[in-house]
Amino acid sequence: MAEPEHGARQETGVLEAEEQSREGLDNERIQAILDAVEAGDAPAVIAELEPLHAADIADFIEQISSQQRRAFLALSADQLDGDVLSELEEGVREEVIEALPREALAEAVRELDTDDVVDILEDLEDIDQAYILETMESDDRAAVESSLAWPEHSAGRLMQSETVAVPQDWTVGAAIDFMRTEDWLPDQFYHVILVDERHRPSGYVTLGRLLSARRAMALSELVEESFLSVEATEEEEEVAHLFNKYHLISMPVVDQSGRLVGVITIDDAMAVLDDEHEEDMLRMAGVNEESSLSDRIIDTAKGRFLWLFINLITAIFASLVIAQFEDEISALVALAVLMPIVASMGGNAGTQSMTVAVRALATRELTGQNTRRVIWRELAVGMINGSAFGLIMAVVAGFWFGLPMLAVVIALSMFATLASAALSGIVLPVMLDKMKVDPALASGPFVTTVTDVVGFFAFLGLASVMLL
Amino acid sequence: MAEPEHGARQETGVLEAEEQSREGLDNERIQAILDAVEAGDAPAVIAELEPLHAADIADFIEQISSQQRRAFLALSADQLDGDVLSELEEGVREEVIEALPREALAEAVRELDTDDVVDILEDLEDIDQAYILETMESDDRAAVESSLAWPEHSAGRLMQSETVAVPQDWTVGAAIDFMRTEDWLPDQFYHVILVDERHRPSGYVTLGRLLSARRAMALSELVEESFLSVEATEEEEEVAHLFNKYHLISMPVVDQSGRLVGVITIDDAMAVLDDEHEEDMLRMAGVNEESSLSDRIIDTAKGRFLWLFINLITAIFASLVIAQFEDEISALVALAVLMPIVASMGGNAGTQSMTVAVRALATRELTGQNTRRVIWRELAVGMINGSAFGLIMAVVAGFWFGLPMLAVVIALSMFATLASAALSGIVLPVMLDKMKVDPALASGPFVTTVTDVVGFFAFLGLASVMLL
After folding, report:
1. Complete domains list, chain A, with CATH
2. Out of A343-357, A429-443, B121-135, B295-309, which region has the weakest mean confidence (pLDDT)?
């Protein structure tokens, strides 16, 4: 758009000041707050927090040690507002909420949109939940309660109940007048939702179009071409996927009968997408999905123990394979030297395929349509790299140990291992996904078992047949 | 908001029809298109595509085989509009663009917002770029060219040049009138940006607030509390992080002198966030970041070869450690049976720490403030699980081989391996990040080398000293 003409110029010092007053969280600031906390100087703590965004205050609270956190909360807990609570990660938020007097908590929650209230209440004990609900205004309480009635991780939990909806046969002028007279509108809204006489959404108009259209224009002529709504029971992960795929900014949520019950905005969808990514990445590495840097050490250790234990079982399983070939190893120790190479290459090739598969399943790029082709593709890739590394290792082992047949054995077993690693890396996640098991969580141990067992068995078995 | 009163009710069949006409991409639809392609029936293909969203058409093109794609493009390439092009992933997009007559390409590009045009032009050969630029209107061309002048992956490339900006001393009424008279506004905008007399942004007002305020109200009284702008040279990854952290919907982009040059909207930031996640996840698994399910097999194999080759080097390095203990292994083959367990557990524990570290670095949760504490934390977790699995394996090995000293050896080496795995899993990514090397890409091989070498050396070395 062309640069607008500048009218009468008045320096608005307020704006500049406001812009500059929003400061970031640097180490200097953190130190200043910690110093004030140590001095027990509550007003100084509050003054240091004043120019920070709620997200930065939350970051501060998460990054300090739990001892510092207790001292900080003792001084300032009742001054934290609701936005800071909604920015905090779960574990830390619980700590903060425990430190808050109930009245302060209720006060903090009251300012929030219903979706943020729901997010906070979800994790509270029933008794605290009930207390906070009681202190809310009846409209808001009803909205929060009905949101909490939807299943966890559903669109119903993610939505805010505050919607801006008008009859679909209204004009631009009527909609604008309606908004002007309403004394209360949500903090964030980007569309006016059109509803039919049964309050079912039938389209939406962006505020930008509304603003640039003539007053007499029918809203129905301005609706966006791509309009989607979801049922409140839909999973939030699916909702986030739809936002990302169709570049949505907000999406109406309906109940079973198709009536509008709320709206989800893209910032919430973005947060869900981010969480899902984190979950997938950590799960694939065998880290408990709820773990965070601010958890207690013993909880973190416990969270990782289970995965390591599963890995131990598969490793012992692989060792049992090796144990079948003790005589061969005694006769030719070179086998013991080389066998970890085969297993390690298999493990890595399997992880490559598996990661591609898990990611493609998460983004819906791997569908019924292309599964067979993708499996064949991965197998082909595994066979190509299996041949390449078979050759390389044949040369290495040949020179190292001077045994031509050992070179042949390692070449063949490398091929078999990399091919089966690639195959299991794609097939197992697909199968788990079909069985409604999260492939990010469960694929790793299976793939590792396959690659280790195949690797050791192929190498030692071939050696036993061809070498000794 | 309360349910609005419904005025005169008129059934608007148009809306319902439009809503229903937007259909998803299911297997049936895919088959129908493919059948039409096989029959060489271009009008039928176009008719099948008609009700689909551009994102779904792009999905279809990505999911079919390259042979089917060629046949499809031969029939329909000139009918694809710009939106479909911008939805396609890079590799496939190149194929489609090659199949497009230049005029059709220029036509398709003309409808797009400048940020999408930039996204497409970035990947084209200079000669095609020049051709398309020539066919654009001079305003748009200037905007696209100035955007392309910013570095790759910068805010300047991500932004759209179309902004809605008004002088900061205007009133609500003036802003609304201005928008009414402008005959052209961007497809998507959510804020009116306030600028000073030098066109530097000083705040923004959401359209929702603008609509609900009185006409005489000064815009400066309605500005959002949290206002951020970025320089055009800022990295897009950082921009995406800011959107996610501060729940922004749009963000003005400025040049070195602080003048407004464009705006980035959250949907683009969400796409960047998604790409960054994908990159991190794939890089950690040693998959070439640009790889996709629709790449050619040989390219995929090449992309993965490098990582496997690096892994081979580290695996050979670990084997050299084993080779130092050939005599010990000959004397006691149980060592060869048990040693992969130690290395495997170390590798997994290292991956756990490393994934947590890479993720925390990406989300800026790991900062100068808490690095030391987090390192200590990981080490403690490694020592706790090292003790636990040391005990478990002592029992297992004791029963299996009946050698008490072997049990002691595996317990001690398990402890040493898991502790050093946890430590290197956190320290190496942090160091790489400090050295400005992407920790997601480079941590894996280092951590694996450490855990393998420490694992084999601790186990075989201790065995050599204590057992034989």
Report:
1. 20-150 (1.25.60.10), 165-284 (3.10.580.10), 297-466 (1.10.357.20)
2. B121-135
| Phi, psi angle pair for B166, to nearest 5° | -135, 155
CA nearest to B293 within chain A: A374
The string of pLDDT tens digits covering residues A320-343 is 999 999 999 999 999 999 999 999
B260-265, strands of its sheet edge to edge: B230-231, B250-254, B260-265
Q: Count how many Cα atoms sit within 13 Å of the Cα of residue B271 in the half-sphere of its side chain.
A: 19
> Which among B167, B280, B368 has the least Cβ separation from residue A6?
B167
Query: Would you state the pLDDT for residue A5?
Result: 38
| Three-state SS at B11 | coil
- Scanning every residue of chain B, which has its alpha carbon at the shortest distance from the alpha carbon of A388? B305
pLDDT of residue A158: 92
Q: Cα–Cα distance between B436 and B424 in angstroms, integer?
A: 18
What's the helix, strand, coil split of chain A in %, to 5? 65, 5, 25
Spell out a b/e string for B45-64, using b for 16 or more CB atoms within 10 Å of the CB, else e: beebbeebbbbbbbbbbbbb
- The residue that leads in pLDDT, B16 or A369, is A369
Q: Do B385 and A15 touch (CB under 8 A)?
A: no
- Residues of B with Cβ-Cβ distance to A293 under 8 angstroms: 356, 360, 365-366, 370, 374, 377
**Regions in chain A scoring below 50 on pLDDT:** 1-22
| Interface contacts A/B by beta carbons within 8 Å | 423
**pLDDT exceeds 70 at position B8:** no
Mean pLDDT of chain B: 87
Q: Which of A215, A319, A374, A393 to mutate to test the interface with B (most CBs of B within 10 A)?
A: A319
Q: Tell me whether residue B302 is exposed, middle or buried, using C-beta atoms within 10 angstroms of its C-beta: 0 to 12, 13 to 18, 19 or more.
A: middle
Cα B286 from Cα B291, distance rounded (Å): 11
Q: Which residues contact B152 (CB under 8 A, 6 or more apart)?
A: B122
Dihedral angle sign, alpha carbons of residues A440, A441, A445, A446: negative
C-beta separation of A385 from B287 below 8 A: no
pLDDT number for residue B290:
63
CA distance B62 to B65: 8
Percent of chain B with pLDDT over 90: 49
**Per-residue model confidence (pLDDT) at position B23:** 65
pLDDT for B252 beyond 90: yes
**Spatial CB neighbours of B279, under 8 Å, sequence gap ≥ 6:** B289, B440
Each residue's pLDDT tens digit, A271-299: 899 888 888 888 888 887 666 776 788 88
Tell me which chain B residue has its CA closest to the CA of residue A183.
B212
| Residue-by-residue DSSP string for B90-107 | HHHHHHHHHHS-HHHHHH
3-state secondary structure of B138: helix
Burial B272-298, CB ≥16 within 10 A → b, else e: bbbebbbbbbbbbbbbbbebbbbbeee
Q: How far is A36 from chain B (nearest CA, A)?
A: 17
Nearest to B269, CA basis, from B277, B259, B281: B277
Point out the residue among B15, B184, B349 whose CB comes nearest to the CB of A220. B15
The shares of helix, strand and coil residues in chain B, as percent rounded to the nearest 5, are: 65, 5, 25
Q: Do the strands A250-254 and A260-265 form a parallel or antiparallel pair, or are they unpaired?
A: antiparallel
User: Residue B299: left (phi > 0), alpha (psi -120 to 50), or beta?
Assistant: alpha
Contacts of B39 (CB under 8 A, 6+ apart): none
Q: What confidence tens digit (pLDDT) does each residue in B336-350 have?
A: 999 999 999 999 999
Considering only CB atoms, which chain A residues are within 8 Å of B186?
A: 1, 208
